[in-house]
Amino acid sequence: MDIKLDEISHSYGSVEVLRNISLTIQQGQIVCLVGPSGCGKSTLLRFIGGLERPTKGEVLQIGSPPKGSLNPLTYVFQHFALLPWRTVEGNIRLVLEGHKLSRGETDAIIRDVLGRTRLTDFAMALPKQLSGGMKQRVAIARALAVRPAVMLMDEPLSALDSQTRELLMDDLVDLWTRQPFTSVYVTHNLNEAVRLGHRIVVLSRRPGRVHKEMQIDMPLSQRRLGDPLLEAKQAELWELMRDEAMAADQELVNG
Ligand code: ADP
Ligand code: MG
Question: Which of 107, 123, 148 is the last residue of a domain?
Answer without folding.
Answer: 148
